[in-house]
């Protein structure tokens, strides 16, 4: 019985089961990552000529204004997404558990659809929405008499970040909604029943039962949110290409520009490594805050 | 028993995975096979003049040379550039492909393309002056260009000009700025600009303005690192001219979120009186513009600038060119030579001209040819004025990227022309270390 059942296999067997996945992971993630680390120490424009430059690339990276601006843009997107994606998703999932809401299945499906669309499609859709002359947004604004609000949404450096963040938030609400709804189903009904007997309103039930019970789910959702938004690229690439100027450049876009517009693949690798380090740092900080909250 | 089968499955998966890897490598190294691999961005459906002409020539070659197999890989234009750079980084370039002038130096220094001087033997004179220069490194030519038109042309709608009370295209810069104001008062966007791709302002505006102010010697000095600087007054003046256009609201508000095909669309919808692009736009206008717009369209170049070193030049000379992978076998090289010759000789040039674009080669007897009106108008502008280099086909890609971004930043008022010049100069100095 001990260590031999199918339910509790031996360690060796567990590793064996993991092996195929690990092999693929190593092939598509770990090895390229190590190669990027190596390239980041070279001056390399593609092709066979590599010149070793030590940590010069990283020294330059620390002084690179555009890199830090784009990091700032990533942070902006993360903050907005944590509020927008995670917050709205939680609110909607709470609503969808209420008995008075009709057509739950329908709402769930509609909210989830954007999540399965390709980022490029979302990007194109929203650049059409934002188009100054023919766009849906300006059309609606004109129709309701708000001509003064009509703006070139993707051209004004002061509002472009907000404009590109909205589609991102919109697309992934469904994703976090599914996570929250799944977690809510694991909360025992008895808690709500007991609360009802005690006379707690449904708003109080949400605040004192649902919210605390979902604490770990929140932590996971926020971590996913940070990780996902540190590498955001496609939407913005399609909508603005990082412009106007560098106003909507995010780190991944910058790594792409450096590598494939400027042809500086060595420095481009350094930018990617910088991105990785900063991402790990942010996730670490969020975890640390989460753990401190527990103590 | 059970665990045995599990191990068996695992083993099989590993073997398959490894087999897949080694398969990939084998594919990458098949230099020995006889098929010529070729990558280009020619798309029949788009109806662009030069690409369509090249496709027809390619078909012709295939029919005449049944023994040579050509494996084509076709990308869209924008993807093509990314793909070719990626393949170059991975050292997996096809046998024959197209490069831009700015790629020449990197590719040749990395030993990825070969000098094609013998491809040109005896027919060097057929190429228009200046079309080969972007593809030359130290007296060797690495690319055979296809088209060689201008990157700066002002397409303007004379009906809209008249509607605003402007009788003829302005003769000097002050007159041009007046025209911009007059058009604006009439409620017409003076110049449609789609600079999302960031290259339009550089290719179609700055290259011409820059060379007008600085003169061609300055650019040679920049290329050879002989003392000229982007912070020189003459270059800053060119930036100031663009800044002046932006400050005077000569462009549409959404210039940085639409691309060049949308700037053409604005023009064709009569929302704008002018747009500034290369000769390739003529094909779209000829094929897609409403009849009245097409009939009213005239072609001009920037008028005379005050204090400019050269009065009436325009940027142009070289677009994409064929380059050959350094790793091809000798027998394949002979086939490729035959193919490239077929695609870039005067016959091919004639076909490009017939379709409405300007080829890199001279075409004898073009006066008698039946070519679109638009192309005739462009030819007369081009023939009366001199070509100057296109910055973004000649300068280092890193420098171009910084230049493009700074130009865009300038149009939204985030940097002044002087600051933009300083930023460009800083990148230039970094590159020359």
The beta-strand count of chain B equals: 13
Oligomeric assembly: heterodimer
Runs of chain B with pLDDT <50, length 5+?
20-32
Structural class of chain A: mainly alpha
End-to-end Cα distance of chain B, whole Å, is 67 Å
Rounded mean pLDDT score of chain A: 89
Individual helix count of chain A: 13
Measured as a percent range, the helix fraction of chain B is 40-55%
Give a written overview of the molecule.
The complex is a heterodimer of chains A (295) and B (433). Chain A is mainly alpha-helical and 295 residues long. Chain A has one domain: MetI-like (MetI-like fold, Orthogonal Bundle), CATH 1.10.3720.10. Chain A contains 13 helices and two strands; from the N terminus they run H-E-E-H-H-H-H-H-H-H-H-H-H-H-H. Chain A is globular, with a radius of gyration of 24 Å. The longest helix of chain A has 33 residues, at 65-97. In chain B, the strands form four sheets. Chain B has a five-stranded mixed β-sheet with strand order 2-1-3-12-6. A four-stranded mixed β-sheet of chain B has the order 8-9-7-10. A two-stranded antiparallel ribbon of chain B has the order 4-5.
Characteristic terms for this protein:
heterodimer; A: 295 residues; mainly alpha; MetI-like fold; two-stranded antiparallel ribbon; 13 helices; 72% helix; globular; B: 433 residues; alpha/beta; D-Maltodextrin-Binding Protein, domain 2; 19 helices
Describe the SSE topology.
The complex is a heterodimer of chains A (295) and B (433).
Chain A: H1 11-39, E1 42-44, E2 50-52, H2 56-63, H3 65-97, H4 104-116, H5 119-130, H6 136-143, H7 160-185, H8 189-197, H9 202-213, H10 215-230, H11 234-239, H12 251-261, H13 265-294
Antiparallel strand pairs in A: 1-2
Helix pairs in contact in A: 1-13, 3-7, 3-10, 4-7, 10-13, 12-13
Chain B: H1 2-28, E1 36-40, H2 49-64, E2 70-74, H3 77-89, E3 96-100, H4 101-109, H5 117-120, E4 136-137, E5 140-141, E6 144-145, E7 153-157, H6 158-163, H7 173-185, E8 189-192, H8 200-214, H9 216-223, H10 233-247, H11 260-268, E9 272-277, H12 281-288, H13 291-296, E10 297-300, E11 313-315, E12 320-324, H14 330-344, H15 346-355, H16 373-384, E13 386-388, H17 391-394, H18 397-411, H19 417-431
Parallel strand pairs in B: 1-2, 1-3, 8-9, 11-13
Antiparallel strand pairs in B: 3-12, 4-5, 6-12, 7-9, 7-10
Helix pairs in contact in B: 2-15, 8-10, 10-19, 12-16, 18-19
